[in-house]
């Protein structure tokens, strides 16, 4: 069985990792500022779904499969790296352009979030390490399912909260006043992660 203290510890680690200014958070924040809260929430839902899936994969031992079949890990990582670089180039190129008049469709925003986290299989290595430290071994399947659902819930709450917070008029005005530099910072972070995924062995 899972003790409440285990879930609390897991959630604290999860919140700390989400609060760091990584590519997933920057993507969700920028989408909210550019396209509005609905698109931001949809992007966060895509990011959160795959993050929770990586946790599930860690619980089911996907790291062992990656160790046995390293080509699978390299393939996922390489495709994800090129997708991140493609996003980064587009952000950098469009940094000086005005905001698009048509809002991003929620389905597309969700798909972008899915692809960004799907292309970062290092998440399963992080999840495996954290899970091994916090939770007891030989958890039953129901307990593993609870951990995954808990992870998804935390991700959805955090990204929805950020989206609602940044959907205010002052936040949008602040973003517009510094759009070029903020977009290029976001592009640089995504591009750096893409290059790191390509070069990291």
From TrEMBL:
Q: Annotated Gene Ontology MF terms?
A: amino acid transmembrane transporter activity
Tell me how this protein sits in the membrane: Multi-pass membrane protein
Which UniProt keyword terms apply here?
Cell membrane, Membrane, Transmembrane, Transmembrane helix
Q: Where in the cell is it found?
A: Cell membrane
Recorded hits in InterPro entries, A to Z, give: LeuE-type
* Transmembrane parts of this sequence: 6-29, 41-65, 71-92, 147-169, 181-199
Keyword match Transmembrane helix: yes
An example Gene Ontology CC term for this record: plasma membrane
Can the keyword Protease be found in this entry's annotation?
no
Q: Which Pfam families match?
A: LysE
Protein name in the entry:
Threonine/homoserine/homoserine lactone efflux protein
Source species: Sedimentitalea nanhaiensis
């Amino acid at each position: 069985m899972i003790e409440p203290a285990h879930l609390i510890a897991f959630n604290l680690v999860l919140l700390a990792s989400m609060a760091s200014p990584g590519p997933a958070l920057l993507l969700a924040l920028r989408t909210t500022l550019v396209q509005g809260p609905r698109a931001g929430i949809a992007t966060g839902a895509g990011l959160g779904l795959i993050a929770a899936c990586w946790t599930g994969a860690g619980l089911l031992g996907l790291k062992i499969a990656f160790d046995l079949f390293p080509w699978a890990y390299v393939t996922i990582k390489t495709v994800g790296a090129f997708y991140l670089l493609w996003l980064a180039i587009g952000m950098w190129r469009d940094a000086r352009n005005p905001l698009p008049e048509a809002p991003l469709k929620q389905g597309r925003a969700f798909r972008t979030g899915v692809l960004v986290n799907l292309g970062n299989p290092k998440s399963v290595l992080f999840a495996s390490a954290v899970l091994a430290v916090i939770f007891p071994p030989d958890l039953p399947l129901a307990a593993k399912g609870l951990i995954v659902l808990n992870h998804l819930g935390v991700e959805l709450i955090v990204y929805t909260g950020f989206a609602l917070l940044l959907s205010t008029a002052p936040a949008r005005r602040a973003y517009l006043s510094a759009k070029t530099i903020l977009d290029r910072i976001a592009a640089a972070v995504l591009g750096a992660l893409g290059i790191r995924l390509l070069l990291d062995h």
